[in-house]
């Protein structure tokens, strides 16, 4: 059947788009952009046809939701940071079939989920920013999953991630990559201080916890990290509740996962938040 070929935790900071534009911040996020380009290159080399993005900028209040329209296009301005991302054009093919397979697998696993293919739902920038650098030529189909899950449990999100893996490998005829699109710590610079924190993390405590987390990831110590995810999220202002990370690790095996990550873009601060691009090797699940 299908194959999960690549998994990664990625940044989507809007300053990546700002980095393209003439001005004082031109080039400021080139390392992050290059990381996305490299992940896109690897997806091509692995024969990926669809990228599934767990997007922490898509807020939902009930159930899990999958945006799997047949096509996405438009011009996007961020309502959060309209001076960073404005009038960004995009156009990508979708994959309704895979979206519905994911929803069916999740519902069968007891995780209430809905796929939306006949919809006017637009994409959020947690999906649009990485696709800008990985998928400019529309090579990949795109499916976006809500991962700002305000009233959900992280263990349930891990269960949802496992259902994504099951849908891909047991029901889909193709090759897929999954991306957890969100930060590590996520305390934005407070109003009026943003320029001072353009390349910094908000507090030394947050940065030190983030760096320790990256060490655990590089060691493949998921038996330590997964149980601490809930507290890490609560104490370090996890973006979207860090449900993207729970989904990613659920798809990879949660505490049974043993692989060390490969850091593509080293940890960096951005507007107070902690960011990284890292590839998580895909290995068979223990059934």
Describe this structure in words.
The structure is a single chain. With 287 residues, this protein is of the alpha/beta class. It has one domain: 3-Layer(aba) Sandwich (Protocatechuate 4,5-dioxygenase, Chain B). 35% of the residues lie in helices and 25% in strands. It has helices at residues 15-18, 30-45, 96-108, 125-134, 154-171, 204-219, 222-235, 243-252, and strands spanning 3-10, 50-60, 64-67, 71-76, 88-93, 113-116, 141-149, 175-181, 262-270, 273-279. The strands form two sheets. An eight-stranded mixed sheet has the order 6-3-7-2-8-1-10-9, with helices on both faces. The protein has a two-stranded antiparallel sheet with strand order 4-5. Helix 6 (204-219) packs antiparallel against helix 7 (222-235). The mean pLDDT is 97.
Descriptors for this entry?
287 residues; alpha/beta; Protocatechuate 4,5-dioxygenase, Chain B; eight-stranded mixed sheet; 8 helices; 35% helix
Record the SSE blueprint:
Elements: E1 3-10, H1 15-18, H2 30-45, E2 50-60, E3 64-67, E4 71-76, E5 88-93, H3 96-108, E6 113-116, H4 125-134, E7 141-149, H5 154-171, E8 175-181, H6 204-219, H7 222-235, H8 243-252, E9 262-270, E10 273-279
Parallel strand pairs: 1-8, 2-7, 2-8, 3-6
Antiparallel strand pairs: 1-10, 3-7, 4-5, 9-10
Helix pairs in contact: 2-4, 3-5, 5-8, 6-7
Task: Kindly summarize this structure in a few lines.
This protein is of the alpha/beta class and 287 residues long. The chain has helices spanning 15-18, 30-45, 96-108, 125-134, 154-171, 204-219, 222-235, 243-252; strands at residues 3-10, 50-60, 64-67, 71-76, 88-93, 113-116, 141-149, 175-181, 262-270, 273-279. The chain has a single domain (3-279), classed as 3-Layer(aba) Sandwich (Protocatechuate 4,5-dioxygenase, Chain B), CATH 3.40.830.
């Amino acid at each position: 059947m299908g194959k999960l070929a690549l998994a990664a935790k990625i940044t989507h900071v809007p300053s990546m788009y700002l980095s393209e534009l003439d001005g004082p911040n031109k080039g400021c996020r080139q390392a992050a952009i290059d990381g996305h380009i490299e992940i896109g290159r690897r997806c091509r080399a692995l024969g990926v046809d669809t990228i599934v993005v767990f997007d922490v900028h898509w807020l939902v209040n009930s159930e899990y939701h999958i945006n799997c329209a047949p096509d996405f296009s438009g011009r996007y301005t961020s309502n959060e940071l309209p001076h960073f991302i404005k009038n960004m054009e995009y156009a990508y093919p979708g994959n309704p079939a895979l979206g519905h397979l994911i929803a069916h697998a999740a519902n069968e696993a007891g995780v209430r989920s809905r796929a939306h293919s006949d919809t006017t739902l637009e994409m959020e920038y947690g999906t649009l920013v990485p696709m800008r650098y990985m998928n400019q030529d529309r090579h990949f189909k795109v499916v976006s999953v809500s991962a700002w899950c305000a009233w959900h449990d992280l263990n349930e999100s891990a269960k949802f991630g496992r259902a994504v893996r099951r849908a891909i490998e047991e029901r889909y005829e193709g090759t897929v990559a999954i991306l957890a699109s969100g930060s590590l710590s996520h305390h934005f610079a407070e109003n009026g201080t943003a320029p001072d924190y353009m390349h910094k993390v908000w507090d030394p405590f947050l940065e030190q916890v983030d760096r320790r987390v990256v060490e655990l990831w590089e060691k493949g110590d998921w038996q330590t990290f997964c149980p601490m995810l809930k507290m890490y999220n609560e104490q370090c202002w996890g973006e979207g509740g860090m449900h993207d990370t729970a989904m990613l690790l659920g798809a990879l095996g949660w505490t049974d996962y043993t692989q060390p990550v490969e850091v593509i873009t080293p940890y960096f601060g951005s507007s107070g938040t902690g960011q990284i691009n890292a590839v998580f090797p895909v290995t068979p699940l223990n059934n």
